[in-house]
Amino acid sequence: MIYFDNAATSWPKPPGVADAMTRYLTEIGASAGRSGHRLAVAGARIVYEAREAVAALVHAPDPLRVVFGANATDGLNLALHGLLRPGDHVVTSSMEHNSVMRPLRALERGGVVLDVVRCSPTGEMLVDDLERAVRPGTRMIVLNHASNVAGTLLPVAEAGGIARRHGCLLLVDAAQTAGALPIDMQADGIDLLAFTGHKSLYGPMGTGGLVFGDRVDVGELTPLRRGGTGSRSDDEEQPTFLPDLCESGTLNAVGLAGLTAGLRWLSGRQVARVRDHEIELTAQLLAGLSGIPGVTVYGTLDARRQMPTVSFDVAGLEPSEVGLRLDDEHGLLCRVGLHCAPLAHRTLGTFPRGTVRFGLGAFNTAAEVATGLEAVAALARAAR
């Protein structure tokens, strides 16, 4: 079996991830930060270590400004619903996932003004187009770091400079890049970074959240939910400080133990080395697919300008049939369809049919890519 669905969820996980989660369940078990006994303290230590690991990875200003939720979607909703008000102007791109577009469309119905900058048919954005869309009332620029459909990288560092020049915030959806591409929030001018644990951080599902830069005024933030935090229990009002402002209810400490293990594995491997490995595999995949008659590849066709996520189609076959036959006949697992990103597919010219998507990861090999190319070539030959 060959797993090419890492853009959805990375697999396999480093061995230490499951071990860390099992240790939490068998040796700690208690609610982190909810009691004063030794097991609750040990759980709280695990959670704080996860904050430290995420902060170190993305060069955040303070581990306490790392807020955990279930995934990047939680983080995006917290940033968008928590900071935007009727009349605010927001600029985003035409390559966004529905985790960005659906909250923004809901906010637009409530009075937020939205401009969508059209990207090229390869998914790329011109910096000048972005800057022209910003105006005096702009409150936020929202961009994914890389497309989950074609892997195309957007100009996040340049957007950070624009945000600072115009006095607005930059929110980055790093679901596809955190752990797979070096990120420096401070150097790149990123004010808010939404991340997920189950992709290139090699942690479990149900982990992720939002990292706040120091330019974000937390006093302006409305949390998505309110409730028990284990702090200020004498007060019926929500705490006003991070992370407690945004972390009501019992945290997924078991998952965060696994996330920390994934981050430690990643730290040992080094993100830059993982990136180099994935560039090599992506270049091999792009070159191979481009040479197969009847196969159309979407995106930049340049491994250095994208993540290891490649979308394509096979003439004469629906993407769903390609995916099914790759699984049944070749043991190759991938994803097909619209990938929860219809606007991106409209930009690429692949809506409503969608594409076949191969998502490579740190554990994939050149031999697996070669086998995948042979499988696609066989389907393409049969369809001609």
Task: Tell me what the structure shows.
The protein is an alpha/beta fold. It has 12 helices and 13 strands. The strands form 3 sheets. Strands 2-8-7-6-5-3-4 form a 7-stranded mixed beta sheet, sandwiched between helices. It has a 4-stranded antiparallel beta sheet with strand order 9-10-13-12, covered by helices on one side. The chain has a two-stranded parallel sheet with strand order 1-11. Helix 1 (15-28) runs antiparallel to helix 8, helix 2 packs across helix 8 and helix 3 (72-83) packs parallel to helix 4 (98-109). The longest helix is centred in the first third of the chain and has 21 residues, at 38-58. The two termini are 26 Å apart. The model has no long low-confidence stretch (mean pLDDT 96).
Proportion of helical residues: 40-55%
Strand content: 15-25%
Determine the number of helices (DSSP H or I, runs of at least 4 residues): 12
Roughly what is the average pLDDT, rounded to an integer?
96
What are the low-pLDDT stretches, counting only 5+ consecutive residues below 50?
none
Summing up helix and strand content along with how strands pair, one would put the structural category as alpha/beta
Q: Quick one: biggest sheet?
A: 7 strands, mixed
- Cα(first) to Cα(last) distance is 26 Å
Radius of gyration: 21 Å
What strand line-up does the widest sheet have?
2-8-7-6-5-3-4
Q: What is the H/E order? A: EHHEHEHEHEHEHEEHHEEHEEHEH
Q: What is the overall shape?
A: globular
Number of strands: 13
Q: What's the SSE blueprint?
A:
Elements: E1 2-3, H1 15-28, H2 38-58, E2 66-69, H3 72-83, E3 89-93, H4 98-109, E4 113-117, H5 127-133, E5 138-144, H6 156-166, E6 169-173, H7 185-188, E7 192-196, E8 208-212, H8 253-269, H9 271-290, E9 295-298, E10 309-314, H10 319-330, E11 332-333, E12 335-337, H11 342-348, E13 355-359, H12 366-383
Parallel strand pairs: 1-11, 3-4, 3-5, 5-6, 6-7
Antiparallel strand pairs: 2-8, 7-8, 9-10, 10-13, 12-13
Helix pairs in contact: 1-8, 2-8, 3-4, 9-12, 10-12
